[in-house]
Amino acid sequence: MMSRNAVAPKDSSRTLKEADAAAAPRLDKPAKNTERISGKEYERELKKLHVELVKLQQWVQEKGLKVCIVFEGRDGAGKGGTIKAITERVSPRVFRVIALPAPTEREKSQMYVQRYLPHLPAAGEIVIFDRSWYNRAGVERVMGFCSEEQAQKFLRVAPLVEKTIVESGVILLKYWLEVSPEEQTRRLSSRIDDGRKIWKLSPMDLKSYDRWDDYTRARDDMFAATDTSWAPWYVARSDDKKRARLNVISHLLSKVPYKSVSREKVKLPKRKIGRYPAAGHPFKHVEEKY
Questions:
Q1: Do 146 and 205 contact (CB within 8 A), yes or no?
Q2: Which listed residue, of 53, 92, 192, 280, carries a Cα 20 to 30 Å from 214's Cα?
Q3: Residue 69 near residue 173 (C-beta atoms within 8 A)
Q4: What is the pLDDT of residue 20?
Q5: Of the candidates 49, 36, 26, which has an alpha carbon nearest to the alpha carbon of residue 238?
Q6: Taking Cα atoms as reference points, which of 58, 66, 218 lies closest to residue 142?
Q7: Strand, coil or helix: what is 126?
Q8: Hey, which bits of 36-130 come out as E strands?
């Protein structure tokens, strides 16, 4: 029998979770390293990481691994640039990027996650989702494209679906890119008068712009419900886009165990040339303006 002054034992899992939360840096506090990385340093480090991504690609093909990477974050957080940095030196046949448009009327009548399932990786593939099924927890919920009941149902079901995905042999990595309101404003403003970026500024971006707190609340609910041991969220601060890209690539390389695949040394064979005279066809040449 417990004495009156005895202290009841604490729930160890809750205690550990609270300790982790207390130790983790808050998203509303500035990052420790606020110094911008230089262009030269970025290119030097990115080159090294690209070499490792190629090794990862070969290992995934060799071993038939299935890797799924989800990128989420506010508008202007740098998801597209990070994905481009990952994929610019690897094969699009292995690294497939999925960026689905708004659902059709038929897709709206389907089970919510149904249109995402066909894009999950098969053996030897790495699939990257530029936004994913988490649209329901974010933009759809905040902008009223789904009911609150649908959003809450998604938050209950998503961890179970992801557990099934992981148990099927898929390595699932989920990244949230966190940008400050000041940096988001700067990036969205820069798109207005830049002909190279104007396509990135959608009507939805403008409608979402003044709902910062609503998106924060939706993000926090999403983390609380879906940050699981089998499919945890990883947060990358992205005010410095270059630094964020390097950090994310380095992190994902650490989460997919790989080794260098042995290959025969490549040597170009001797080439026979000049035995066939080129035809005198009146070729139409591209005008050399530059």
A1: no
A2: 192
A3: yes
A4: 54
A5: 36
A6: 218
A7: strand
A8: 66-73, 95-98, 125-130
Residue from 12, 76, 3, 20 nearest 232 by CA: 20
Q: In the sheet where 170-178 sits, what is the strand order?
A: 95-98, 125-130, 66-73, 170-178, 233-237
Q: If residue 214 lies in a helix (H) or strand (E), which one and from where to where?
A: helix 212-226
Give the tens place of pLDDT for each residue, 47-85: 999 999 999 999 999 999 999 999 999 999 999 999 999
CA distance 183 to 161: 34
pLDDT digits (tens, 9 = 90+) for 192-238: 989 998 888 888 888 889 999 999 999 999 999 999 999 999 999 99
Q: Which residue type is seen at 76? A: G
Q: Which of 14-18, 99-103, 220-224, 271-275 has the lowest mean pLDDT?
A: 14-18
195: left (phi over 0), alpha (psi -120 to 50) or beta: alpha
**Domains along the sequence of the chain with CATH:** 37-255 (3.40.50.300)
pTM metric for this prediction: 0.86
Contact 168, 64 (CB under 8 A): no
Which of 182, 162, 180 has the alpha carbon at shortest distance from 172?
A: 162
Phi, psi (deg, nearest 5) at residue 57 = -55, -45
* 228-253: pLDDT as tens digits: 999 999 999 999 999 999 999 999 99
Dist. CA 285–CA 71, nearest whole Å: 43
CA dihedral 149, 150, 153, 159 (to 10 degrees): -150
Q: Give the pLDDT confidence score for residue 25 in this predicted structure.
A: 55
Q: Which of 20-24, 180-184, 201-205 has the lowest mean pLDDT?
A: 20-24
